[in-house]
Amino acid sequence: MNTLVNFAQKGLKNVFKFHGGVHPPENKTQSTQLPIARASMPEKLVLPLRQHVGNLPKLKVSVGDKVLKGQLLAEAEGMVSAAIHAPTSGTISAIEDAMIPHPSGLPDKCITLVPDGRDEWIAHAPTDWRDADRKEVIAQLRNSGIVGFGGATFPSHVKLRTDGKSNVHTLIINAAECEPYITCDDMLMRERASEIVQGIQIAQHLLGADQAVIGIEDNKPEAAKAMQAAVIGTNIQVKVVPTLYPSGDARRLIYLLTGQEIPHDKRTTEVGLQVFNVATVLALYRYLDHGEPAISRIVSVTGNVGRPQNFEVLFGTPLHLLIQAAGGEKANTTHYIMGGPMMGFKLPSGDVPITKATNCIIASAPDLFEPPPVPMPCIRCARCADACPVNLQPQELYWFAKSDNFEKARDYQLFDCIECGACAYVCPSNIPLVQYYRYAKSEIITADRAKEAADLARQRNEFRLHRIEREKQERAAKHAERAQGAKAAETPAQGAKQDAASSPAVSEADAAKKAAIAAAIERAKAAKAAAAQAGEAPKNTEPASNAVKQEIAEIDARRKAAGLEGKQDAPSGDAKKATPEADAEKQAIIAAAIERAKAAKAAAEAAKKEKGE
Amino acid sequence: MSTALLIMIGLALVLGALLGYAALKFKVEGDPLIARIDAILPQTQCGQCGYPGCKPYATAIAKGEADINQCPPGGDAGVHALADLLGVEYKPLNAEHGTPKPKSVAFIDEQTCIGCTLCIQACPVDAILGAAKHMHTIIASECTGCELCVAPCPVDCISMIPIGETPDNWKWKYPTIPIVPVGLSSVQVSKS
Q: Which CATH number does the domain B32-97 belong to among 1.10.15.40, 3.40.109.30, 1.25.10.10, 1.10.510.10?
């Protein structure tokens, strides 16, 4: 019956409501009053290497290098990684640890670039993506530095790569922007709708997707209108979805737009869907059509500031400069939040740079965000379960996380939690639920890493023991072989002796053999003597043919004519000289050489002494 | 009567054959208990337990020759896990075998190293690279921090460096609730 109802609904409905979700005050109008402004050029740009999910990129510049705007500073390393480019022309002044926008507040490796003020671009190299080979274009995107600009910062070239198995038929463009306060995608759509549409077409082409659907929440009517106007004449569809947090989560948005639920252990591409943020497709367009790598993004600066506004900011711009551009912070500002109020985190200071992940900066004050009330015990009301958009049991996860029962938490699909904070938002006991989940997740991840390291160590240790054992055996085998060889050499000699004593018949045969050998030696000696008498050296030419013999004879004649015969013998004659004489001569020479060396040394020392005095 | 008997005998034969086949087909190689204990041990191969490695210690525990609280790198969590697995009472770590230290990796001062290869021979996981009369170096990702290379070095050029906290290995902390003295509301606390 349920499937029937669902089927009927699918036919009728335009959008599908996901389970749970909350609707906090939007607070979006503050920062949409002014158009996107360009932030001024700072005195120095600090670019953290850690700006995306995956491996840290490999440095391609060193301190003192002059770089142009858009030049590659660090290239993608490994499969999941993204490049970093110079946001403006200037000089690399340092590569060192500096404060980065990270919840840990720990410093990390950053490239510091001092702009020269010329803002000089590298030669733009646009790509003819329509005609070029898809794989080549995607491989080229590895150097674009483009990551998911919605905040997840997953390298985009990895998401575009199709491995033959995935058959993406629908591209979903995420323009829901469901978190309160954030308006960067809203303003982007209002102002650059046509460029976004071109970017969508690029992504569609690269993925081979026939359809594209843009999902926009209904609290952004201007943006929806702009997009609807821009998609006319294309096969891109604009769908307005009801405002409900967290509709901007990829899987929630897919359900909203298509009614399809992705199994928790599958990727969206396995069911033919891929999701990109609007800012990401715009970056694709800028890179492929204009040859501009990712060097800036739109950031909403809002909250407790004088003039909330969206800015186009170069990566690496210090946060305080942006706050100044937005009219400065108001007096009672306590700290800054990066991201939205639901999922964002408190920044360690105002000196951190803007990175690829920075979609919004909120200046926080007690009157905007009340300090969290004291948490009370859980009363098992299960309101969190009603609010959970992933259909988890947040109360169970909370108990498991609280009691360090991590295996159970994993069994209850802790890692499907998207940390949206809807559960904590509705909790009547004000329990910081997401903090517990984050704690449990990082404990589990650490334990898993330790286990992996232990497995590797076990493997290496076992291999080492195996190797030592093998070497031992090889050595033993060698020893045994040698011992056996010595024995074998000993035994035949003993045997011969025994034979000679025991059987006279054999000894007779031996005597005959010996006599034959002696006779052969006699013959050879006689032949040699005869040759010597004839005045010729033995030639060993018996088996040679007549022609060869003749040739040899000719050569000998030539040698005689040249007077070589005598000389050839000379050195051997020298060597045969009485050895004691030669030894005495040699010793005399050595003694003389030693004398000379001593004299030279003494002279050198004397010279040194003189110099010293 | 006889039919029932025949059926029972037949059943017994069939099931017996099945069981016999299964015993051969799904034979468990080695002692699974040793492998399970070994899986809990941290595999530093440091020998602090008094055995030449984690596997020998696991074997000794399985035989009942060693206690479960002799592994400092495994820490308290390791002892708890062993106690759970073996169904015995938890015991605090035996201080005779050392105390848990923060995880560290060895570091060779390459200026001082004389290339004697003694540390290479001592390393239980082949994490030191080098050759005779050539400089040695540690493969940090493979080092278990067992400290076995430190003692044999004749020029004391190996030091243990604790692994610091980086954004990569940083962990979210357990949520703590600030203690508010009775009679003060949270607003007053935030003002003070």
A: 1.10.15.40
- Mean pLDDT taken over chain A: 85
Question: Which of 3.30.70.20, 3.40.50.20, 3.60.150.10, 2.40.40.20 is the CATH number of B101-164?
Answer: 3.30.70.20
- How does residue B191 score in pLDDT terms, banded at 50, 70 and 90? very low
Task: Please give the angle made by the CA atoms of A310, A348 and A116, to the nearest 5 degrees.
Answer: 60
Residues from chain B that touch A366, judged by Cβ atoms under 8 A, are 190
Whether residue B163 lies within 8 A of chain A, CB to CB, comes out as no
Rounded to 5 degrees, what are φ and ψ at B106?
A: -75, 150
Give the chain A residue whose CA is nearest to the CA of B146.
Answer: A457
Residue A57 preceded by cis peptide, ω within 30: no
Of A439, A463, A465, Cβ closest to residue B174: A439
Angle, helices A184-191/A221-230, rounded to nearest 10 degrees: 40
Tens digits of per-residue pLDDT, A296-355? Answer: 999 999 999 999 999 999 999 999 999 999 998 988 999 999 999 999 999 988 889 999
- Say whether residue B176 is in contact with chain A using an 8 A CB cutoff: no
Domain ranges across chain B: 32-97, 101-164
User: Is B96 an 8 Å CB contact of chain A?
Assistant: no
Task: Yes or no: say if A250 and A173 are a contact pair by the CB < 8 Å rule.
Answer: no
Q: Domain A11-32+129-364: which topology?
A: Rossmann fold (3.40.50)
Find, in chain A, the residue whose alpha carbon is nearest to that of B45: A461
B102 in reach of chain A (CB within 8 A): no
Model ipTM value: 0.81
Cβ burial, residue A342 (10 Å; 0-12/13-18/19+) = buried
Render pLDDT for A351-396 as a digit per residue (tens, 0 to 9): 899 999 999 999 999 988 988 888 999 999 999 999 999 999 999 9
